[in-house]
From TrEMBL:
CDD domains: NAT_SF. It comes from Aaosphaeria arxii CBS 175.79. One of its GO terms (molecular function) is acyltransferase activity, transferring groups other than amino-acyl groups. Residues 11-166 form the N-acetyltransferase domain. It holds the Pfam family Acetyltransf_10. Keywords: Transferase. This is Acetyltransferase, GNAT family. GO terms for biological process: UDP-N-acetylglucosamine biosynthetic process. Signal peptide: none annotated.
Protein backbone atom coordinates (compact mmCIF):
# COMPACT_ATOMS: atom_id res chain seq x y z
CA UNK A 1 0.00 0.00 0.00
CA UNK A 2 1.49 3.37 -0.98
CA UNK A 3 1.56 6.36 1.36
CA UNK A 4 -1.50 8.00 -0.21
CA UNK A 5 -3.55 4.92 0.67
CA UNK A 6 -2.15 4.54 4.19
CA UNK A 7 -3.60 7.86 5.36
CA UNK A 8 -6.97 9.59 5.10
CA UNK A 9 -7.26 13.40 5.07
CA UNK A 10 -10.58 14.62 6.50
CA UNK A 11 -12.04 18.07 6.91
CA UNK A 12 -12.33 17.68 10.65
CA UNK A 13 -11.32 19.59 13.78
CA UNK A 14 -9.25 17.66 16.33
CA UNK A 15 -10.06 17.82 20.02
CA UNK A 16 -8.23 20.43 22.07
CA UNK A 17 -6.08 17.72 23.62
CA UNK A 18 -5.26 16.14 20.23
CA UNK A 19 -4.38 19.58 18.87
CA UNK A 20 -2.11 20.32 21.85
CA UNK A 21 -0.42 16.92 21.69
CA UNK A 22 0.15 16.97 17.92
CA UNK A 23 1.67 20.46 18.00
CA UNK A 24 3.95 19.40 20.87
CA UNK A 25 5.00 16.16 19.12
CA UNK A 26 5.76 18.10 15.91
CA UNK A 27 8.02 20.48 17.88
CA UNK A 28 5.61 23.43 17.57
CA UNK A 29 4.69 25.53 20.59
CA UNK A 30 1.91 23.68 22.42
CA UNK A 31 -1.03 26.02 23.10
CA UNK A 32 -2.70 26.53 26.47
CA UNK A 33 -5.43 23.90 26.63
CA UNK A 34 -7.94 26.37 28.09
CA UNK A 35 -7.80 28.42 24.88
CA UNK A 36 -7.48 25.60 22.33
CA UNK A 37 -11.14 24.54 22.15
CA UNK A 38 -12.33 28.09 21.39
CA UNK A 39 -9.55 28.58 18.86
CA UNK A 40 -10.39 25.37 17.04
CA UNK A 41 -14.11 26.19 16.96
CA UNK A 42 -13.28 29.50 15.25
CA UNK A 43 -11.35 27.86 12.40
CA UNK A 44 -12.32 28.72 8.82
CA UNK A 45 -11.20 25.21 7.82
CA UNK A 46 -9.24 22.40 9.39
CA UNK A 47 -7.94 19.20 7.82
CA UNK A 48 -6.64 16.25 9.80
CA UNK A 49 -4.81 13.10 8.75
CA UNK A 50 -5.49 9.64 10.15
CA UNK A 51 -4.02 6.21 9.56
CA UNK A 52 -6.46 4.35 7.31
CA UNK A 53 -5.85 1.03 9.06
CA UNK A 54 -7.52 2.31 12.26
CA UNK A 55 -10.53 3.99 10.60
CA UNK A 56 -14.07 2.70 11.23
CA UNK A 57 -14.92 3.68 7.64
CA UNK A 58 -13.70 6.27 5.09
CA UNK A 59 -14.96 9.22 7.16
CA UNK A 60 -14.92 8.05 10.78
CA UNK A 61 -11.75 7.67 12.85
CA UNK A 62 -11.63 4.58 15.04
CA UNK A 63 -12.28 4.70 18.76
CA UNK A 64 -9.30 6.21 20.57
CA UNK A 65 -7.67 7.04 17.20
CA UNK A 66 -5.70 10.28 17.14
CA UNK A 67 -4.77 12.41 14.13
CA UNK A 68 -1.22 12.09 12.83
CA UNK A 69 -1.29 15.40 10.96
CA UNK A 70 -3.28 18.62 10.67
CA UNK A 71 -3.48 22.05 9.11
CA UNK A 72 -5.86 24.99 9.71
CA UNK A 73 -7.06 28.20 8.15
CA UNK A 74 -8.23 31.20 10.16
CA UNK A 75 -9.77 34.43 8.95
CA UNK A 76 -12.74 36.28 7.57
CA UNK A 77 -13.43 33.73 4.84
CA UNK A 78 -13.20 36.16 1.95
CA UNK A 79 -10.26 38.59 1.91
CA UNK A 80 -7.83 37.56 4.64
CA UNK A 81 -6.83 34.10 5.81
CA UNK A 82 -3.96 32.80 7.85
CA UNK A 83 -2.58 29.33 7.34
CA UNK A 84 -1.41 27.79 10.61
CA UNK A 85 -0.88 24.58 12.53
CA UNK A 86 0.52 22.51 9.67
CA UNK A 87 1.99 19.70 11.71
CA UNK A 88 2.76 16.01 11.19
CA UNK A 89 3.66 13.65 14.00
CA UNK A 90 7.37 12.69 13.72
CA UNK A 91 6.49 8.99 13.42
CA UNK A 92 4.59 9.78 10.21
CA UNK A 93 6.79 12.42 8.58
CA UNK A 94 8.27 11.83 5.15
CA UNK A 95 5.12 10.12 3.87
CA UNK A 96 3.61 13.11 1.98
CA UNK A 97 1.02 13.79 4.69
CA UNK A 98 2.03 17.46 4.96
CA UNK A 99 1.79 17.83 1.17
CA UNK A 100 -1.66 16.25 1.11
CA UNK A 101 -2.87 18.48 3.95
CA UNK A 102 -1.49 21.55 2.16
CA UNK A 103 -3.21 20.53 -1.06
CA UNK A 104 -6.50 20.14 0.84
CA UNK A 105 -6.07 23.61 2.37
CA UNK A 106 -5.18 25.26 -0.95
CA UNK A 107 -8.09 23.53 -2.70
CA UNK A 108 -10.41 24.80 0.04
CA UNK A 109 -9.08 28.35 -0.37
CA UNK A 110 -9.48 28.20 -4.15
CA UNK A 111 -13.07 27.00 -3.82
CA UNK A 112 -14.31 29.10 -0.89
CA UNK A 113 -12.13 32.24 -0.78
CA UNK A 114 -10.35 32.62 -4.14
CA UNK A 115 -9.64 36.34 -3.59
CA UNK A 116 -8.16 35.92 -0.12
CA UNK A 117 -4.68 37.12 0.85
CA UNK A 118 -3.34 34.09 2.70
CA UNK A 119 -0.49 34.72 5.14
CA UNK A 120 1.57 32.39 7.26
CA UNK A 121 4.68 32.07 9.40
CA UNK A 122 6.77 29.06 8.44
CA UNK A 123 9.08 27.13 10.72
CA UNK A 124 12.46 26.46 9.06
CA UNK A 125 11.67 22.78 8.54
CA UNK A 126 8.62 23.66 6.41
CA UNK A 127 10.02 26.55 4.42
CA UNK A 128 10.74 24.36 1.38
CA UNK A 129 7.19 22.95 1.33
CA UNK A 130 5.11 26.11 1.10
CA UNK A 131 6.46 27.61 -2.17
CA UNK A 132 5.22 24.44 -3.92
CA UNK A 133 1.71 25.67 -3.10
CA UNK A 134 2.18 29.24 -4.31
CA UNK A 135 3.44 30.91 -1.13
CA UNK A 136 6.07 33.62 -1.55
CA UNK A 137 8.39 35.46 0.81
CA UNK A 138 6.88 38.79 1.93
CA UNK A 139 10.11 40.75 1.47
CA UNK A 140 10.60 43.66 1.84
CA UNK A 141 7.98 43.25 4.60
CA UNK A 142 8.92 41.22 7.66
CA UNK A 143 6.89 38.91 9.83
CA UNK A 144 6.22 39.91 13.41
CA UNK A 145 4.24 38.57 16.33
CA UNK A 146 2.90 39.52 19.73
CA UNK A 147 1.97 36.85 22.24
CA UNK A 148 2.47 37.64 25.92
CA UNK A 149 2.23 34.06 27.18
CA UNK A 150 5.09 33.03 24.86
CA UNK A 151 7.19 36.19 25.16
CA UNK A 152 7.06 36.13 28.97
CA UNK A 153 7.73 32.41 29.39
CA UNK A 154 11.45 31.65 29.94
CA UNK A 155 11.07 28.09 28.57
CA UNK A 156 9.72 29.36 25.25
CA UNK A 157 12.33 32.10 25.12
CA UNK A 158 15.09 29.51 25.57
CA UNK A 159 13.52 27.29 22.91
CA UNK A 160 13.35 30.18 20.40
CA UNK A 161 16.98 31.12 21.12
CA UNK A 162 18.05 27.50 20.58
CA UNK A 163 16.20 27.37 17.25
CA UNK A 164 17.83 30.63 16.16
CA UNK A 165 21.30 29.34 17.13
CA UNK A 166 20.70 26.10 15.22
CA UNK A 167 19.67 28.05 12.12
CA UNK A 168 22.86 30.12 12.29
CA UNK A 169 24.96 26.94 12.56
CA UNK A 170 23.20 25.42 9.54
CA UNK A 171 23.63 28.47 7.31
Amino acid sequence: MDNSQQYVILQRIPTAQEYHDLRKAANLTPPPLEAAAKALANSFACFTAYERIHMQDDTTPGLDQHPVGMGRLLGDGALFLQLCDVAVHPDHQGKSIGKRIMQSLVDHIDEHAPQAYVSMVAEPIGQKLYPRFGFEDVKPSIGMFRCAWIQNNPDFKAMREAKAAAMLRNN
